[in-house]
């Protein structure tokens, strides 16, 4: 018997699980309409897997539990008291042709869920729901629709299950184990009745039982893979010398390069991808810089573009400076990346990168530098907080002073703008000192 459903049958089962507009008892009719008696085991198997692997929503779990309750109900052999069981045993002795006891195979799943009444709210709700279903399959609770009971509304469930009608789960577990222990091991394993006797000519019952027990204990019920044994090649005389070789004139040649670890380009790409969005550790930054120094062509595989370059500047300014330094030989390419500084807001890291680049490069593009300094000056006036504004002004003054010391900034072309900036923030000592330095250079 196949314990799994086809795709079309799984779709039907999913629709039933998501049906919140039908009362629980009416769902029973839909289950019997969509699935035959032979498919009930398959339905329960799939539902058990879904419940175990947490593949259902809370509402769907309640519907799945109800279907399991309907298809795996408690039989009288598990709910009768000792006196009723004794009467039933006496009746079976008088009528040996009566039907054997059949245990619902998925009942332990429901009993385990019913025992989780001391855990957090969600499992406690499911435990109470299952307990009600085991105690009274025709409870008024099941006349409601799934969306009416309210998931995790334990107080509402308790109305349908008074404290006086508690179910003795431990007693049911004990009875289940007692009945299960009487079932032969062969039946529990689902082994067929017909087997081949391992020893021909000895067809005794004991031999057959011993053979089955041996296979059960050694887990030998597996498909046998029939394959031809490999053929043995003919052994030649000149091959025998290698069995015991003693010629010391021929020494092995060692491959010295086998221990050389080749750089992993994927690791470099992953580090660069990470550098655009988060700050790297000092060790990771050194790894990238070292790889770029040894293999400059890796820059083409780094995934860097003018659009994502500013993210690298803000998160890892040291790496962005190293990349710009390697673009210095290509005037057109470095101007494209420098243009990205003009299109974004001025920050401490952007000024830090340009400042380092001005010290490492002979001459920066004058037009770019004038526009970037103008953006730095304008950014000071856009800050409303006096403390933050003062701090930013000091950084801009230090940045302009460094450009002047590196002979990068043409003060004559920007004198008017620099003068207005220094006068506007003359209350800040760094701005006053910068103004005196500018006047001295203009003389």
TrEMBL record:
Pfam families membership: CNOT11
Compositionally biased spans, kind Low complexity: 88-99
UniProt keyword terms in alphabetical order: Cytoplasm, Nucleus, RNA-mediated gene silencing, Transcription, Transcription regulation
Superkingdom of source: Eukaryota
Compartments where found: Cytoplasm; Nucleus
Stretches for region Disordered: 78-99
Keyword Oxidoreductase: no
Family classification: Belongs to the CNOT11 family.
Protein name (Swiss-Prot/TrEMBL): CCR4-NOT transcription complex subunit 11
Organism: Anaeramoeba flamelloides
